[in-house]
Design goal:
This protein is an all-alpha fold. The chain contains 26 helices and no strands. The chain has helices at residues 3-24, 29-41, 45-58, 63-75, 79-92, 97-109, 113-126, 131-143, 147-160, 165-177, 181-194, 199-211, 215-228, 233-245, 249-262, 267-279, 283-296, 301-313, 317-330, 335-347, 351-364, 369-381, 385-398, 403-415, 419-432, 437-449.
Length: 450
């Protein structure tokens, strides 16, 4: 008999005894309390809840009964009811670290992170040796992007319990978010060594390897995660992103589609699939995916910028302006969004607003070639040719073989009647890109003018 079977047999034996006790004394609160916990361990959540509710009715001032009822409600994701139960337990016994820590878990599940921190800290003040509370506090700090503090909290949990797999795995995630990929992988390795059948550990290590450009290693881990849990949408999405990086479009789309079948509200996968469609020039499908992201999360900056760019390319300028402006409100230093909005303003002949955006973008990223080039083009259209030449020259110092910039500098020289330089630039632009129709037409006009 293996250990799991032994535990199962013991639970069933306990259940039989509690059943007999309650049959003899139907008002035996402690027996309901104990049976409720066993039923929860057996996954029989509604029966567990009924027993714990009955225990609370029979002994309404017993803090433990309310706390255990809260725990069953928490595991059932009935969070508001769980809060009420834990709060009643804490009211009855203010110095109850387990109930405080468990209520903190509920606050964290509701993304009310500051209330969660307050409860975890209160629990640890009462009992600083609760490894699980240190770990939960670490995960809350991670959600608040206080990553160094999160790692310290996980360290405290692991000092108490060095084999705490959950804390190792979540510290690994925090390291990954700090882009310390070797430290993250070391934590996932240690956790998997301790317990090698947990799908999320393989998935998290696979995602870390993907971000570190170890695509083969990522595929190995993500395949293992999906083998352990075929319905694991997160792992399928990450594997799809890995296939996309490897250029395996068909496999990437298959994984993204399957992930979205399993989780139709999976914002990140819509974003990844949209980027793939965009790169395949399947722009209608890309636009639809970015719009789905924004239906789920109207403040997703990446989706706003990507949709804005597709709308700009389709000359839906007012809609593009709306998306870019919203993105900039949310992230005022987003140089790409600012520069792209500048392109829209220029397309609408709103040159001074375009210049303001290009100037702002270049304050954020002084060497972005395309923004230098776009500002130069705006100066050219305003007949400010010297300023235009300065920008085009700088852009070409950074990227000498840019056909678009060469053609625009050639047009600037042409406007200044410096025909030889204009001819050299336009000819060079056409050599680099024989399909540069704008450069061909411009050189044609140069020949007529010469």
């Amino acid at each position: 008999m293996n250990l799991d079977s032994l535990y199962q047999d013991r639970r069933e034996a306990a259940l039989a005894d509690f059943n007999r006790a309650i049959a003899i004394d139907p008002d035996y609160a402690w027996a309901y309390f104990q049976r409720g916990q066993v039923l929860r361990e057996l996954g029989r959540m509604e029966e567990s809840l009924a027993d714990l509710r009955r225990a609370c009715e029979l002994e309404p001032n017993d803090a433990a009964y309310h706390a255990e009822r809260g725990e069953t409600l928490r595991l059932m994701r009935r969070y508001e009811e769980a809060l009420t139960a834990f709060s009643r337990a804490i009211e009855l016994r203010p110095e109850y670290p387990w109930a405080l820590g468990s209520r903190g878990q509920v606050w964290r599940a509701l993304r009310r992170h500051h209330e969660a921190l307050a409860d975890f800290e209160a629990a640890l003040a009462l009992n600083p040796m609760l490894a699980w509370v240190h770990a939960e506090r670490g995960e809350t700090l991670r959600a608040l992007r206080r990553l160094h503090e999160a790692i310290e909290a996980f360290n405290q949990a692991l000092n108490i319990d060095p084999d705490y797999v959950w804390a190792l795995g979540h510290r690994g995630i925090a390291y990954r978010e700090l882009r310390d990929y070797p430290a993250a992988i070391a934590d996932f390795d240690a956790a998997i060594t301790l317990q090698d059948t947990i799908a999320w550990l393989y998935a998290e290590r696979g995602e870390t390897r993907r971000l570190a450009d170890d695509f083969e290693g990522a595929l190995f881990d993500l395949n293992r995660a999906i083998e352990l849990d075929p319905q694991y949408a997160w792992a399928l999405g990450s594997r799809g992103a890995t296939f996309r990086a490897l250029g395996d479009t068909e496999a990437a789309l298959a994984d993204f589609n399957r992930a979205l079948e399993l989780d139709p509200a999976y914002e990140w996968v819509y974003m990844q699939r949209g980027l793939l469609y965009r790169n395949l020039d399947r722009l209608d499908e890309a636009l639809a995916d970015f719009s789905r992201v924004l239906a789920l999360n109207p403040n997703n900056v990446g989706a706003l910028v990507e949709r804005g760019e597709l709308l700009r390319l389709r000359r839906h300028y007012n809609e593009a302006l709306t998306d870019f402006s919203h993105a900039i409100e949310l992230q005022p230093d987003h140089a790409w969004a600012i520069g792209s909005r500048g392109q829209v303003y220029r397309a609408l002949n709103r040159y001074h607003e375009a210049l303001a955006d290009f100037n702002n973008a270049l304050e954020q990223k002084p060497d972005l070639v395309w923004i230098l080039a776009e500002r130069g083009e705006t100066y050219r259209l305003l007949h400010q040719y010297n300023e235009a030449l300065e920008d085009f020259n700088r852009a070409l110092e950074l990227q000498p073989n840019d056909s678009w910039v060469l053609s625009r500098r050639g047009a600037t020289y042409q406007a200044l009647k410096i025909f030889e330089e204009a001819y050299i630039d336009l000819t060079r632009a056409i050599e680099i890109d024989p399909n540069n129709a704008w450069a061909l037409a411009q050189r044609g006009s140069l020949f007529r003018q010469m």
